[in-house]
Amino acid sequence: MLKIGELASLAGVSRDTLRFYEKHGLIIPNQRTESGYRLYSNIDVERISFIVSAKEVGFTLNEIHQLLELEVTKDKKSCQDVKEFVDNKITIVNQRLLEIEKIKHSLQTLSDACCGGDEPATQCTILGALNEQAR
Amino acid sequence: MLKIGELASLAGVSRDTLRFYEKHGLIIPNQRTESGYRLYSNIDVERISFIVSAKEVGFTLNEIHQLLELEVTKDKKSCQDVKEFVDNKITIVNQRLLEIEKIKHSLQTLSDACCGGDEPATQCTILGALNEQAR
DNA sequence: ATAAACCTTGGAGTATAGTCTAGAGTCAAG
DNA sequence: CTTGACTCTAGACTATACTCCAAGGTTTAT
Ligand SMILES: [Zn+2]
Ligand SMILES: [Zn+2]
Ligand SMILES: [Zn+2]
Ligand SMILES: [Zn+2]
Question: Which SMART domains does the record associate with it (chains A, B) (predicted)?
Answer without folding.
Answer: HTH_MERR (SM00422)
